[in-house]
Amino acid sequence: MLFVPEMYEVKAQREMLLFVNRNIIHNAVKHAPEKGQLAITATLRDADHQITVCIADNGGGIPADVLPYLFQKDKPAGQQASESRGSGLALIICHEMVSTMDGDLWAANNDDAGASFYYSLPLALVDGHDADLPASATDGSVTQP
């Protein structure tokens, strides 16, 4: 288990980040099978000083014809809301929020089952610290205490 080094803080707006996490986790739980699994991981990318969070489930995944349009307002005919999928409006809002925080949000189907949602956000150097990430902070999962 690794921790985000104290010399860095995630550049994010608290309320936006809470909304994004709540929505993606809610969707993962909603689409996972009964007694399914949900994994949340975070990794530091030292090359561009970013943290990437992954929320993965083992549900049915995202239909291949829906995945390319998941975060778009204007979807092609046939990609509109369905009773089981919903409108996707919250995911569009999540994408806009992460973009506003200078980050990126994307999704992919897992090889075995389910889907993973990823978002990356920049790290800011706290005053008084060197600009390099320590090597130990870049080789695995990251958790906040």
Descriptive overview:
This protein is an alpha+beta fold and 145 residues long. It is built from 2 helices and 7 strands; from the N terminus they run ββαββαβββ. It has helices at 14-31, 89-100; strands at residues 2-3, 8-10, 38-45, 50-57, 104-109, 115-125, 142-143. Strands 2, 3, 4, 5 and 6 form a 5-stranded antiparallel sheet that branches. The chain has a two-stranded parallel ribbon with strand order 1-7. Helix 1 runs antiparallel to helix 2 (89-100). The longest helix is centred in the first third of the chain and has 18 residues, at 14-31. The chain is globular and about 45 Å long.
Overview features:
five-stranded antiparallel beta sheet; globular; 145 residues
Could you tell me the mean pLDDT?
80
* Amount of beta strand: 25-35%
Give the overall form: globular
Secondary structural class: alpha+beta
Q: Which H/E pattern describes the elements?
A: EEHEEHEEE
For the sheet with most strands, the description reads: 5 strands, antiparallel
Number of DSSP strand runs: 7
How far is the N terminus from the C terminus? 10 Å
Low-confidence stretches: 133-145
**Percent helix among the residues?**
10-25%
- Total helical segments: 2
Radius of gyration, whole Å = 16 Å
